[in-house]
Specification:
Layout: E1 2-3, E2 8-9, E3 13-17, E4 33-42, E5 48-65, E6 68-83, E7 86-96, E8 102-114, E9 121-131
Length: 139
């Protein structure tokens, strides 16, 4: 849900990727690339867009989670978005090399999207990151 002060707007979209999106492959060597080609349909604006790019295995690294050093697989996803939305995004994800659990993620996204009047177009940017702080499940 987007909150524009004077009004709020819900957004619902569905994405399909062909071939299937490869997030992490435990057999990858550094520099391995997986193509990304996804189509997203917005039920709110009826716009569709296509995001194309590459998910690249950067390499093995060590990430400290809590007090534990964890062997991780670092991937960089770079995409260009076109169609009903236009822009770019770059996402880095560090996956636990034992389980595939995402432990850290960063994003830099910039996209221009159509919007209902009176806005007509919304330019959206997002930068952020998160890192898991504990490997043990909390109850």
């Amino acid at each position: 849900r987007f909150d524009f002060g004077a009004f709020k707007m819900d957004e619902l979209s569905a994405s399909t990727c062909s071939p299937a999106f490869v997030a992490v492959d435990f057999g990858d060597e550094p520099g391995a690339e997986h193509p990304v080609d996804c189509t997203t349909e917005s039920e709110t604006t009826e716009a569709s867009n296509r995001s194309r790019g590459t998910n690249t295995f950067v390499g093995r690294e060590t990430l400290v989670v809590g007090e534990e050093e964890v062997d991780v697989l670092h991937y960089r996803l770079e995409r260009t978005i076109s169609g009903g939305q236009d822009g770019t995004d770059e996402v880095h994800v560090w996956y636990d090399a034992r389980s595939g659990l995402p432990l850290r993620r960063t994003i830099a996204l910039a996209v221009a999207s159509p919007a209902p009047p009176p806005l007509d177009e919304v330019v959206y940017t997002e930068t952020g990151e998160w890192t898991i702080t504990e490997l043990a499940p909390q109850t």
